[in-house]
Design goal:
6 strands, alpha+beta
């Protein structure tokens, strides 16, 4: 009973290793990957006896241009709070994870970092998002809409 299991395990290992063969980029016997830059051509269907594939016309596509700059929200209080907004006041504390800021048990998400510094007394307006997942692992996430020192 042990022998068939060992044979099966050896076959599975061989199959897995053979499927990965030639993946290091040095083996040119396999099918070229798109990153290797090999052109894909088809043979002409109507009779050119020379067997030379027709050449493609030069590309007229323009090179990609730089993306327009993204708009950043203004620093400090900007827009009136949205519906369901909450205002909290307190001293900004460092969270247990890097770059995590806490006020009164809320984890601050976003907001002006020049205002929200550790030790600053602030008033923050925004919305608590208890279902939001974060990497800070503490407090209730609070999406900051505006913040000011108090």
């Amino acid at each position: 009973m042990k022998t068939p299991r060992m044979v099966l395990a050896a076959l599975v290992a061989c199959a897995a290793l053979s499927a990965c063969g030639g993946q290091d980029g040095d083996d040119r016997t396999g099918t070229p990957s798109p990153s290797e830059g090999s052109p894909v051509t088809s043979t002409p269907s109507s009779g050119d006896p020379s067997g030379v594939p027709p050449t493609a016309p030069p590309s007229t596509a323009l090179p990609p241009t730089a993306r327009p700059p993204t708009k950043r929200p203004p620093v400090g209080p900007s827009v009136p709070p949205g519906p369901g907004a909450t205002t909290i006041s307190g001293t900004v504390e460092a969270g247990v994870e890097p770059n995590c800021l806490m006020v009164e048990g809320y984890q601050l998400i976003g907001g002006p970092r020049d205002v929200l510094t550790v030790g600053a007394r602030v008033t923050v307006t925004g919305q608590p998002k208890p279902d939001m997942m974060t990497t800070c692992q503490q407090g209730t996430p609070f999406v900051v809409e505006s913040a000011r020192r108090s």
